[in-house]
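Revision sheet: structure tokens.
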Amino acid sequence: MSALPARRRLLAVAGAALTLATAVALTACASDADDAAAPASSPSDGAFPVTITSALGDAVITEKPERVATWGWSAQDAVLALGVVPVAMPAYAYGGVDGVLPWDADEIAALGGETPTLLTGTDTGEIDVEEFVAVRPDVILAPYSGLTQEEFDALSQIAPVVAYPDQPWATTWQDQTALVGKALGLGDEAQALVDKTDADVAALAAQYPVLDGKTFAYGANNEPEILNLYLDSDPRVQLLTQLGMELAPSVTELDPKAADESYFYGLGFENLSKLDSDVLVAYFGSQEQADAFVADPLVAAMPQVAEGRFAPIVGESFVMASSAPTVLSIPWMLDRYVPQLADAAARVG
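Predicted:
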């Protein structure tokens, strides 16, 4: 790995014709023998070429990809659910075991595959373009990510890049699955996965009607004396609304930068009394962190906490599964998640 900082590496690769030529040559000479991807057989693979337009540019995929790389939080879930083992995907120090999220590890094992190359930079968001060059992908899938235009342009010199359709970190899990399916020529299979997962969510919601119409605020105490609140563009919020809950109006009203296109904002603890909701949801990497949060006097005074209307999500893997819901992570965590929400909702009033 180069000793250059990640940003300088990205710029160097983007501007160097030699590196581009090497990437193209390596891609062209990839052999079946070292192909780690395992695409699912399908009687009706999509027609190629396919063009997928994103907020950062077009991905023109000329033929069915065999070597798939992913970036962002959850594209690998859709790829694996469609029966394809990526050649590379992000490493997850948070929530993963040896860098692999548990539901991904389960699916790789079920497919009889080997652990893909694990890409660094997940925690910092810094892309090492040389790592992508080394795995010789046919396509790079990043529909739920924070790719910049600069990064998109650099990676596009290696392979077609499928980025987010509108804003970074704001693609629904349904749209993520559909985009991955289209890129892999497995659109029908992707839609079937979405339909089944939607049906499973609806069935579980029906078992807990107490959730219907209850308002919630979804937060994270990632820095001292600040509760980050997630907005309706965030998939973790959208999953709760899919269960029949409603984002509390106070979450939007307290946003100091409503004109911005961010998916969250920070609320100081001194303003927690203004956060009105039936239920408060927040995530924590450990029980110790959750305990420290509710021990703060300003947090303890919140009616949601004092009256037991608080639903903490505790444990790194559980946090990842609920924060970036997908067709793989939703089944993995939903049976645990929904009863916990329902217990808090039942205490309203």
